[in-house]
Amino acid sequence: MHGELSVIHRLFSNGFDGDRSKLRLYSTAEPCPMCAAAAYWAMIPKIVYGSSISFLHDLFGRQIQIGAKEILSNTPSFYEVELVGGVMEGECNDLFLKAKQLQGNQHD
């Protein structure tokens, strides 16, 4: 399960019934289309991320090249999600670069 889906599932399966307008989703990477849609339907009004989908695609491949902004701009308009990208982008990119390096070392 993707990290964003996992945290959304845990939040609501643990009985969250608080003020959704105060929820924020933070991620090292831009949410994939599935996770962006899940955050929307969970009514999380703000998503903050570091690395972009395009960076992840260039690094790993196997990424659907549809950004969260495109997904969120095509949702029903009963509320809006604020999307803040590029937060600590260099640090997040470095984490993924290290993960790629470790992944390569597993095959040695």
From TrEMBL:
<dbReference type="Pfam" id="PF00383">
    <property type="entry name" value="dCMP_cyt_deam_1"/>
</dbReference>
<dbReference type="InterPro" id="IPR002125">
    <property type="entry name" value="CMP_dCMP_dom"/>
</dbReference>
<protein>
    <submittedName>
        <fullName>Cytidine/deoxycytidylate deaminase</fullName>
    </submittedName>
</protein>
<dbReference type="InterPro" id="IPR016193">
    <property type="entry name" value="Cytidine_deaminase-like"/>
</dbReference>
<dbReference type="GO" id="GO:0003824">
    <property type="term" value="F:catalytic activity"/>
</dbReference>
<feature type="domain" description="CMP/dCMP-type deaminase">
    <location>
        <begin position="1"/>
        <end position="63"/>
    </location>
</feature>
